[in-house]
Design goal:
2 copies of one chain form a homodimer. Chain A has 417 residues and is of the alpha+beta class. Chain A has one domain. Chain A is 19% helix and 19% strand. In chain A, helix 2 (81-99) runs antiparallel to helix 3. At the A-B interface, helix 3, strand 4, helix 5, helix 6 and strand 8 of A face helix 3, strand 4, helix 5, helix 6 and strand 8 of B.
Chain lengths: 417, 417
C-alpha cells in the first residue's frame, strides 16, 4: 500500500458497500511503524459514496443535504498574498483527497514529523463528504491585491430586522462548509484545513449542525426543525435546472467573470427560543408556520406537498394567517423569488445568561445575489413573520462561492487568474 | 390511529426495517387538525431497533455505545419533595415511551394546549435510544428528606490532578444520559425531559457527543478519538458477566440496598489541546498512547487486539514507555482494576480566550464505586500519564445510577421505597 493511505482502501478491500454493508475487522494487518510504513486499520460499515470534487459548480450547493455539517469561517492573519495563495493551493489538494475518502496527502509515514493527516477519519468511508469554499467581502480589501476582483454583489449585508448578531460569530475572510453523512468525517475535514492554514489563517468561528435521520436513502423524508415542523418542503430541487440558473447560479449579469457558475452563500444562525415555543398551543404553533405540525401539510391542504391556497378563507378569516411564515416566505408572494436553502439544526448547550437552551437552525441559503434575494425577503420576514416572536438571528455572514474547479485548477488559480 | 401517536407506526406501516430500509413518503395521510385528530407523517429510513427500558439494570450502561450522545445535568429548583417525585414519575413514563419510539404521552391532539411532545422526532425511528438516570450527591442533602438514603459511595469526587474544572459545567442534582443512533432522537429525549421538569428542575449543563461512524452493524470497529487513535480497544465487553459483576454493578457491599444492581457514573469532559497535539511528531504521538496510530496495535504487537507486552525492551529501552497511557491505564498495572468506559467525542466550537478548538472527549465511566475505581486511577494518570501534556479535564460529575426498573415501577418509587 502506498505511503498516502486511502481511507477507502480499507473498505473496498473487504467488500463493504453502501449503507447496508457490515464490515468485519481485518485480521493480520501490518503496522510496524518502526520501519516507516503506514498501513492497516479496520473498516466500519457506513456510507461509501463519494461526490465529485470538480465540475461546473462546487459540490455542496445543490448536492442533496448530507446528514451533518461542520462549518467554519476563517480570518487571514498573514498580510502576504503569497501565503494566502499557497494556503488555497494546499487546501485544494487536501479537500480533493478528503472528499474522495483519502487522507490529507504528504509525509504520512514520517515518524519524525507530525502526521500529514490527523487520523481520526482513518477507516471511515467518504460518507458523501463535500467541501465548499467561500470568500468573504473582507478578503477583497487592500491586503492581498484583490480589490479589483471583488464582485459588486459581494458587499457586506446591511443591518436587517431581527438581527441580534454576535460579531465574533459573524463574517470572516473565508468559509468552509463541510457536509457529510458522518460527523467525524465532516469535522475531520474542517480541522485538517484549519491545521494546514497555520501561520496564514485562523478559525474565526465555527458551527456544527445536524439535519436529518441517519438514513442515506435517496428518497429522504423532509427533516423536521427543532420546533417540530417539517422544514424544506418547498425548497428548490437539484433537478430544477431552470430555477437554479435563474436564482442560484451566477450568470452573465456578474461584473466579475470568475464568479460565473458560482453562487452567494448567506449563513444565519437562527436561535430558537425553545422554551417559549414549547409552551405555545398547538393551534398557535400551526398558525405561525401555516402548516399542520405532524403531517407538514399546509393548513389549506391534507398532505405535505399540497400547494398552499393563500386565498382560502373560512368564515371570513384567512385559513393561512396573514403573518404565517409559509405565506410570507412563499415565492407566490415574493415576485417569484426562490432561494436554495440548506438548513441544519444546532444545539450548543445552555445560554449562560438565561439558562435556556441555545439551539435552533443554522440556515444556509444560496442565490445568485444575496442583495436581490435574501435581503428583501429577510426585510419582510424580519418585520412581519409571526415566527419572530420565537427566534433571533445571532450570526450572519456572506461569502462568494466560486464555480467548480476544472481539472488541475486550484482555488488560488481561480481567485487570481 | 390513537391520539397518542406512535412514531414507530409511521415506519412499521410501510415496512421499513433495519438499517437497509429505504422508505418512501406516505401519500394521502390525513391531518385535518381542525377536527382535533393528529396523525400522518412520513417515514425515514433509519435504525428501527429498540432497547428494552426495564430490566435488572438500566439500559445505556452495558448497551453497546450508540452513535450519538445527549447528556444533561439538572438542578432541582423546587424545595418540595412531592414536586421531585412527581417529576420522576412523569419522566419515567416519558422516557419509557420515547425509548420505544413513541411520543411523550398525553394530550397530543389538543389544539388549545401545548403539544405533549415537541415533535421533532416524529417520523424518526427509535434509533436504539436509551435513557439512563443518575442521582448526584447533592440530591441527598436535607431538601427532600433523602439524606438517610444516600449511599456512602455517593460522595463528591475529591480534587484530582489534571482538574481544570469549570463549576458551571460540573456536578448537578440529577443527570440524564440519552444515547441513540440519531442525534435528533437523542436531543429530543433530553429536551422533552427538561420541558417536563419545568417548575421543578432546570438544566444545569449539557453536552452533545458523537462517537462512531454512521454504521449500526453489530461488529463495529473501535472508534477513533479526536487525536486520531483508536479508543476503547480494551474496554469491558457486554458479555463479560463476571467482570461486570466484579467491577461495574453495585453488589451486596452497598450500604443502600436500593442501589444494588446499579452503578456509579463519572463524567469527565476532557478537552484535547488539539493544535499542540497536531504539531507533535508521529513517533511521539505513538509513544504517548503506546499504540500505533493507524492500526491501533500496541507498540509491542501488530494487530489491534494483541495484548500489550509491558516487559518488552529494545536496546535496553521499554518499547511501551513508562509514561505511555496504555501502560498506566492497563488493568495489569492497576491490581486488576477495570472500568466500563463510554466515551464520546465532542466539538464545541472555538475557545473565545485562546482561539483554539474546544474539542475532545466526553468520557463516561461506570463502576461499582468511583472512589475505589476511577479516583485512584485518575490520581495515577493525572500525575504520570504522557497524555497530560495534551489534555485538561474541564468538567466532572458523579451520579448514582439506580438499577433497572421492574414492571410498573417508577424512578420515584425506586428512590423512596
Amino acid at each position: 500500500m502506498s505511503a498516502e493511505v486511502s481511507r477507502r482502501a480499507f473498505l473496498t478491500g473487504i467488500g463493504a458497500v453502501g449503507v447496508a454493508g457490515v464490515a468485519a475487522g481485518i485480521a493480520g494487518c501490518t503496522d510496524h511503524s518502526a520501519s516507516g510504513s503506514r498501513s492497516g486499520g479496520d473498516a466500519a460499515a457506513g456510507d461509501n459514496s463519494t461526490v465529485p470534487f470538480r465540475g461546473d459548480h462546487q459540490a455542496g450547493i445543490v448536492t442533496p443535504a448530507q446528514d451533518r455539517l461542520a462549518f467554519a469561517a476563517f480570518d487571514i492573519t498573514s498580510s502576504a498574498r503569497a501565503d494566502l495563495l499557497a494556503m488555497l493551493t494546499t487546501w485544494t489538494a487536501a479537500a480533493e483527497a478528503m472528499t474522495q475518502g483519502d487522507q490529507v496527502p504528504g509525509g504520512a509515514s514520517d515518524l519524525a514529523a507530525p502526521p500529514a493527516d490527523t487520523g481520526e477519519a482513518v477507516g471511515l468511508p467518504a460518507s458523501a463528504l463535500t467541501i465548499t469554499i467561500g470568500f468573504g467581502p473582507s478578503l477583497f480589501d487592500d491586503r492581498f491585491g484583490l480589490a479589483s476582483r471583488r464582485p459588486t454583489a459581494l458587499e457586506k449585508l446591511p443591518a436587517l430586522p431581527g438581527d441580534r448578531l454576535q460579531p465574533e460569530l459573524s463574517d470572516g475572510d473565508l468559509c468552509i462548509q463541510a457536509c457529510a453523512n458522518d460527523p467525524q468525517v465532516a469535522f475531520h475535514a474542517v480541522r485538517n484545513l484549519a491545521r494546514l492554514a497555520r501561520g496564514t489563517a485562523v478559525m474565526r468561528w465555527s458551527q456544527l449542525g445536524f439535519g436529518r435521520t441517519s438514513s442515506t436513502g435517496a428518497e429522504q423524508a423532509t427533516p423536521r426543525n427543532l420546533m417540530g415542523f417539517k422544514d424544506g418542503t418547498r425548497n428548490i430541487k437539484s433537478d430544477e435546472k431552470d430555477v437554479l440558473d435563474q436564482h442560484v447560479w451566477v450568470g452573465d449579469e456578474t461584473d466579475q467573470p470568475w464568479m460565473k457558475g458560482g453562487s452567494y452563500l448567506v449563513s444565519r444562525r437562527i436561535r430558537m427560543l425553545i422554551e417559549a415555543w414549547d409552551r405555545d398551543y398547538l393551534a398557535d404553533q400551526q398558525n405561525v408556520f401555516g402548516r399542520f405540525k405532524t403531517s407538514g401539510a399546509p393548513l389549506t391542504g391534507s398532505t405535505e406537498f399540497d400547494t398552499p391556497d393563500f386565498t382560502k378563507a373560512d368564515a371570513g378569516k384567512q385559513v393561512i394567517p396573514a403573518d404565517a411564515h409559509i405565506r410570507l416566505a412563499s415565492h407566490e408572494n415574493n415576485d417569484g423569488l426562490r432561494l436554495l436553502r440548506r438548513g441544519y439544526s444546532y444545539t450548543d448547550g445552555i445560554d449562560p445568561v438565561t439558562g435556556e437552551l441555545d439551539a435552533g437552525l443554522f440556515f444556509i441559503v444560496f442565490q445568485k445575489n444575496a442583495h436581490t434575494h435574501f435581503v428583501p425577503l429577510q426585510r419582510k420576514l424580519g418585520t412581519q413573520d409571526a415566527l419572530n416572536e420565537y427566534i433571533k438571528h445571532t450570526s450572519s455572514a456572506l461569502f462568494a462561492c466560486p464555480p467548480g474547479l476544472r481539472p488541475g485548477q486550484s482555488w488560488a488559480d481561480q481567485l487570481t487568474a
